Q: What sequence folds into this?
């Protein structure tokens, strides 16, 4: 097996199987949506981040984890801009598997895992205790952790948006959707394990009065997930500007020095 | 380091130190007064840039290593926590990751420069050989480093590359097992790769020392490829080349910073943000861009062992260049025929890199990429083993200028040769 694997990798496998599949059901190019965070000066739209957070919390979190995002991040600069009190309240609303209690117990008398309210230092708890449970609850498919989903897929936030809004596209008549999967041409292979009912219109009620169409919800949650993957983006871009300005000025000075010193040498 | 020292201790303290440890003298003679040809162009600033890159990788690497955890279960999360929780961790990691690409960009320019101006020819053979050794060590270091974040590409890249050793008849499988420290890429592999990734840059630094030492015996080659004949041909390294190098270094850093701050994942592969999973093979396993030309050669040959030999031979060939080139003239400026073959070689390398990034069966513009890779590989070998020796014998070089000074300061004859 071990000997065969690399050979297959290097020569055969890629050539034969995936190429054939790729021609028919390669994922479609992502939809051309625009986001506030694009470009060298782009920043996150705070209101979109807060709405996107609501979508994640009320819809996606039933299936998807956000393992790398801590509650304190919700209150940090460049993020959704929740106050510390709000972030604490959000954290406290989650049940985190508790540490052993004074008697060293992790389970109560009924065998149920003890929990405690979340604190700022905790990360979003995973909806499932382990991978097997997650698969069992999703027809054998594993809902991936969403912390870095926009960095881990070609197309980033646009890809997430396209997936979420891509369920209702016309299915080619000759394409068989396998049992337990759903048609989505933006997903590689066109058959995704995420139910097409995962995100519907009015799945959330926005407190700022924004109309909760599927497109709006998808756009908001894609913005939120971009932030989840790249929480320091605003800090990075603003520092970058200072660094570039500094370097341009320094280049100018060095150029002048260079011209002066070399004036008589060539 | 060669010739009589011109160091003249100014204070009593300097004199005291000089008699006991002539370090100030060494620095004075190597970076201060070192006579340097006055006609070095922009392509000669990359040596300094490379030294800078090595320093940046070592400094950022040491900080990363303070927070990084070399454990198959924890490595991915530790890198992600560097990005989120460590103060300016995102900056340090992005500098390190993009720094590797910048390092290779600079080394490729530096090497093509050497090829074009014949800088490997006598008496600079050892400088070139030490340079190729540095390049080899860099490839190993970068390969080990890319494994550390333990994403999907880290894991599968390591699997594909280490498996190449298993192509060696009889003992290959044992070598692979020995490299892994296990029966597959795993925790033991990650730990030893981290250890080596930390070690090799310091060995590189040592070889860089030898490289510069060897350089300071004959001194720099130059775009004309002719020897320095009189003091008029040179200027002291400081301030002439310190200021010139500083200016171009600053431009290079500007370019570098644009990636770090505005497109930090440009050179990365999205799959490496997915934790390593030995059970899921990514549809396309691609190494980092700087290894793609060799990867293309490897894959263009159906037989695995032959592929490994061709790939290895491509690197071994680089060591032999000083003896494959038969020309008496160094610089391609005066070699009209060789100049064309040189640019052909650059194109072949770029094509190989392009092919390496495609899936093996890719067809672009109606052309199967594997054939493009084959033709480019043949050109790569032909360039060194046929073109270099033959053209050197049959070509009539243009007339060389009498001296560097004459070419730079007066006489437009040399300029016209360009
Ligand atoms: C020749 C110089 C070096 C090169 C070319 C190099 C290259 C690399 C590369 C390509 C990566 C993967 C980056 C990523 O995708 O995250 C990496 C990671 C890493 N390197 Fe280096 N490196 C060098 C020197 C060093 C040194 C001297 C140290 C330690 C003292 C170091 C420590 C690390 C650590 C801890 C990581 C893992 C963290 C991470 O992935 O960002 N490196 N290196």
A:
């Amino acid at each position: 097996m071990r000997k065969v694997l690399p050979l297959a990798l290097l020569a055969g496998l890629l050539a034969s199987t995936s190429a054939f599949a790729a021609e028919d059901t390669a994922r479609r190019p992502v939809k051309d949506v625009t986001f506030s965070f694009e470009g060298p000066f782009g920043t996150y739209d705070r209101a979109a981040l807060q709405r996107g957070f609501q979508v994640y919390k009320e819809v996606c979190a039933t299936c998807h984890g956000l393992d790398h995002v801590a509650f304190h991040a919700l209150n940090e600069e460049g993020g959704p801009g929740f106050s510390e009190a709000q972030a604490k309240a959000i954290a406290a609303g989650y049940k985190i598997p508790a540490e052993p209690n004074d008697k060293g117990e992790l389970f109560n008398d009924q065998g149920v895992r003890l929990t405690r309210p979340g604190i700022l230092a905790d990360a979003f708890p995973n909806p499932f205790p382990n991978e097997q449970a997650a698969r069992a609850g999703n027809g054998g498919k594993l809902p991936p952790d969403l912390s870095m989903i926009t960095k881990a897929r070609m197309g980033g936030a646009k890809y997430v948006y396209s997936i979420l809004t891509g369920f209702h596209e016309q299915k080619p008549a000759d394409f068989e959707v396998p049992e337990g999967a759903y048609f989505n041409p933006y997903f590689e292979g066109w058959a995704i394990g995420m139910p097409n009912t995962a995100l519907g219109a009015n799945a959330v009620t926005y407190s700022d009065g924004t109309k909760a169409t599927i497109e709006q919800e998808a756009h908001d949650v894609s913005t939120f997930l971009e932030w989840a993957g790249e929480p320091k983006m605003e800090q990075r871009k603003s520092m970058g500007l200072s660094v570039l300005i500094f370097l341009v000025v320094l280049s100018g000075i060095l150029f002048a020095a260079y011209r002066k010193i070399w004036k008589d040498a060539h | 380091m060669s010739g009589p020292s011109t160091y003249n201790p100014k204070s009593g303290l300097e004199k005291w130190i000089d008699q006991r440890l002539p370090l100030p003298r060494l620095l004075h003679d190597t970076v201060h007064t070192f006579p340097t040809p006055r006609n070095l162009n922009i392509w000669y600033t990359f040596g300094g840039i490379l030294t800078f890159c090595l320093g940046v990788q070592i400094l950022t690497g040491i900080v990363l290593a303070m927070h990084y955890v070399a454990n198959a279960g924890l490595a991915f999360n530790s890198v992600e926590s560097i990005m989120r929780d460590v103060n300016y961790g995102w900056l340090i990691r992005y500098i390190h990751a993009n720094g590797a690409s910048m390092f290779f960009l600079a080394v490729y320019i530096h090497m093509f420069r050497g090829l074009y101006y014949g800088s490997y020819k006598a008496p600079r053979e050892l400088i070139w050989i030490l340079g190729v050794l540095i390049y080899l060590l860099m490839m190993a270091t970068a390969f080990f480093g890319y494994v550390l974040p333990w994403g999907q590409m880290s894991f599968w890249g390591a699997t594909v590359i280490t498996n190449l050793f298993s192509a060696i008849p009889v003992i290959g499988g044992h070598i692979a097992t020995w490299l892994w420290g296990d029966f597959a890429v795993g925790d033991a592999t990650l730990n030893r790769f981290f250890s080596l990734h930390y070690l090799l840059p310091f060995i590189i630094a040592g070889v860089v020392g030898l490289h510069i030492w060897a350089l300071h015996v004959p001194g720099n080659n130059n775009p004309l490829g002719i020897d320095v004949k009189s003091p008029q041909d040179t200027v002291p390294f400081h301030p002439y080349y310190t200021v010139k190098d500083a200016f171009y270094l600053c431009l290079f850093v500007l370019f570098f910073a644009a990636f770090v701050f505005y497109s930090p994942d440009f050179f990365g592969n999205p799959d490496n943000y997915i934790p390593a999973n030995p059970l899921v093979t990514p549809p396309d396993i691609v190494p980092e861009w700087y290894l793609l030309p060799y990867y293309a050669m490897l894959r263009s040959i159906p037989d695995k062992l032959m592929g490994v030999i061709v790939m290895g031979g491509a690197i071994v060939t680089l060591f032999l260049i000083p003896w494959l080139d038969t020309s008496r003239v160094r610089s391609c400026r005066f070699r009209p025929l060789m100049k064309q073959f040189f640019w052909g070689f650059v194109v072949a390398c770029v094509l190989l890199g392009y092919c390496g990034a495609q899936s093996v069966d890719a067809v672009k513009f109606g052309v199967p990429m594997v054939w493009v890779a084959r033709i480019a590989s043949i050109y790569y070998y032909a360039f060194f083993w046929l073109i270099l020796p033959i053209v050197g014998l049959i070509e009539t070089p243009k007339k060389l200028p009498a001296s560097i000074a004459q070419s730079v300061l007066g006489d437009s004859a040399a300029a016209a040769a360009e």
Remarks:
- Residues B 54, 57-58, 61-62, 64-65, 68, 79, 93, 96-97, 100, 103, 138, 141-142, 145-146, 148-149, 197-198, 201, 204, 268 surround protoporphyrin IX containing FE (CB under 6 Å).
- Confidence is low (pLDDT under 50) at residues 1-22 of chain A.
- Residues 233-262 of chain A form the longest helix (30 residues).
